[in-house]
Amino acid sequence: MSIFKKNKPEERTEEYGEYEESYYVASQWQLMWRKFRKHKLAMGSIFVLVLLYLGGIFCEFVAPYDLESRQIRYVYCPPQRIHFFDEKGFHLRPFVYGLKRKIDLVTLQKSYKEDKRKKYPLQFFVHGQKYKFWNLFEADLHLFGVERGGVIFLLGTDRMGRDMFSRIVYGARISLSIGLVGVFLSLIIGLILGGLSGYLGGVTDTIIQRIIEILRSFPTIPLWMALSAALPPHWPPLRVYFGITIVLSLIGWTGLARVVRGKLLALREEDFTMAAKVAGCKDMRIISRHLLPGFLSYIIVQMTLSIPSMILGETSLSFLGLGLRPPITSWGVLLKEAQNVRTVALHPWLMIPVLFVITAVLAFNFLGDGLRDAADPYH
After folding, report:
1. Measured between alpha carbons, how far is 256 from 251 in angstroms, rounded to an integer?
2. Residues of 251-261 as b/e, b for ≥16 C-beta within 10 angstroms?
3. What 8-state DSSP symbol labels residue 184?
4. Cβ distance 79 to 202 under 8 Å?
5. Which of 15, 55, 164, 306 has a CA that sits 20 to 30 A from residue 71's CA?
């Protein structure tokens, strides 16, 4: 092995023996971590997901503008370019040029051109529009921005002149949190019903498995649409948010329940399970304290692979107008504005939220793939 090349033969043998011994005495989580670190895509996905979730958590600080801040003069403004060079050469601090608006008197279409007479250096940790962070306290500090009189639209603006980058960052909080909350609820339902089905067997197993088969026989999107349409239209945004989360959870628990059932069927006849029964442990205690921890790694993998489906479910429902609705902003709500083909053809940057959805889904899939390989560290 390369880590022993510079040592003498007897030293290499001794170090290899210590390495081998540490491998066999390592805990399950240590073995998983050793295997997981070798999966480059999974390690990179952790970095991407951390950035996305930090952006969602601190969206008021990261976004240069407020969620509903409108720049009427810059409706459907394309993304601005960040420059390091001008006619004088290279500048260490990046900058953006001012914008000049022009209206075609025939088609009434607006176009924008850089005004190279005005330069606005990009500044970090600037004071700008006031916001209420998580509705707890007021602040006006933003991660980046430009001085007063200039504007910065990294991803362009929408039909109301609202900054797309700011709205995407705000939408990350909703879309990504629905994935976590929905999977958490699915986890609870799947563990309880799957555990009872696999451990008790008999009539209980038959009933639960028939329910799972019925739910899985329905096409996913139409079933989501039917349940979402049942939500009262007069509900406030927060209640709609939890309603959509519950709808996604009611469908998403079936896969986890089957995984739990299959594992419990294999473990319930083991000696330690029989010993727990002889000791007088109740069924729920045996399931929760003795059986479920035995395949906790597989549960974590299943949860990780389930989050993308939750995110896609919310995005699909909101895109179709049956999920979250304004004033709540999610990636699906943002994509609803891009339903018109003509709008997309003229203003393609409105489709940028798709890239964030794809990035989040792929990152979770790569992470789940790495965890799945690491769950069997001896393989």
Report:
1. 11
2. bbbbbbbbbbb
3. H
4. no
5. 55
Residue-by-residue DSSP string for 71-120: -GGGTTPPPPPPEEEETTEEEEEEEEEEEEEEE-TTT--EEEEEEEEEEE
pTM of the model: 0.85
Number of residues that make up the chain = 379
Where exactly are the structural domains of the chain? 80-152, 169-374
89-103 and 137-145 as β-strands: parallel, antiparallel, unpaired? unpaired
Starting at the earlier edge strand, list the strands of the sheet with 83-86: 83-86, 89-103, 110-121
Rounded distance between C-alpha atoms, residue 39 and residue 260, angstroms: 26
Tokens 């555990």 locate to 195
Alpha-carbon span 353 to 185, nearest angstrom: 26
Query: Could you give the percent of the chain with pLDDT greater than 90?
Result: 33
Distance CA 308, CA 303 (A): 10
- Which two three-digit tokens encode residue 67? 């969620």
Q: Which helix (H) or strand (E) holds 128?
A: strand 123-133
Structure tokens at 212: 């799972």
Handedness of CA 172, 311, 241, 326 (dihedral sign): positive
Compute the CA torsion angle 78, 81, 86, 89 (nearest 10 deg): -170
φ, ψ of residue 191 to 5 degrees: the values are -65, -45
What are the residues whose beta carbons fall under 8 Å from the beta carbon of 359, sequence distance 6 or more? 48, 52
Q: Which amino acid is at 345?
A: A
Tens digit of each residue's pLDDT (9 = 90 or more) over 152-181: 999 999 989 999 999 999 999 999 998 888
Give the bridge partners for 126, in sequence order.
Answer: 142
- Measured between alpha carbons, how far is 78 from 337 in angstroms, rounded to an integer? 16
Convert the pLDDT of each residue in 44-79 to its tens digit: 999 999 999 999 999 999 999 998 889 888 999 999
The pair of three-digit structure tokens given for residue 307, joined into one six-digit string: 């989050």
For the domain 169-374, what is the CATH code? 1.10.3720.10
